Structure formats: structure tokens, C-alpha cells
Amino acid sequence: QDLDAEEKENSLCNHSERLAVAFGILNLDGASSITVFKNLRICGDCHNAIKYLAKIVGVQIIVRDSLRFHHFKDGLCSCRDFW
């Protein structure tokens, strides 16, 4: 599939894990972590975005993809960016 840069950028905004994390941030209500379960692998763009969101918002974000748990905290991931 051949997408131009704008189409690619728009499609990345609709990845389920990114939307789930955004929903979790909007509904934190004093919680210290957000947990997301996904049946496919997380893409590199979402992985980086969630790392930065965890640092900016100051919460732990846990994403379970098809292979492993990713624990995002303070801008770092437990997989050390190897997934």
C-alpha cells in the first residue's frame, strides 16, 4: 500500500493502542497507571508516542501486545526499544 506522508500521518492517529491510551489519560481520575491489551504487535510510531506520553503525563502505561508486556514509565520502556 503506497501512502503519501499526509495519509500515513492520518492513519497513525487511528491506531487502537494510541486511542486507548488517550482515552485512559482523559479518564485518569487519580489513577497511577493505564493498561491496554492489544492482540497485534505495537508499531514503532505508537511505541515512541506512548513513551513520550508516559513521561509527559507522569503515569505508568502498560501495553500488552501479541508478544510481550511493555511497561512505559518516565519516557522509557521495559523492552529497551527492542520488540
From TrEMBL:
Domain annotation DYW: ranges: 2-83
Pfam families reported in the protein's UniProt record: DYW_deaminase (PF14432)
Listed InterPro entries: DYW_dom (IPR032867)
A single GO molecular function term of this UniProt record: zinc ion binding
Domain of life: Eukaryota
Family note: Belongs to the PPR family. PCMP-H subfamily.
Protein name: Putative ovule protein
Biological source species: Solanum chacoense (Chaco potato)
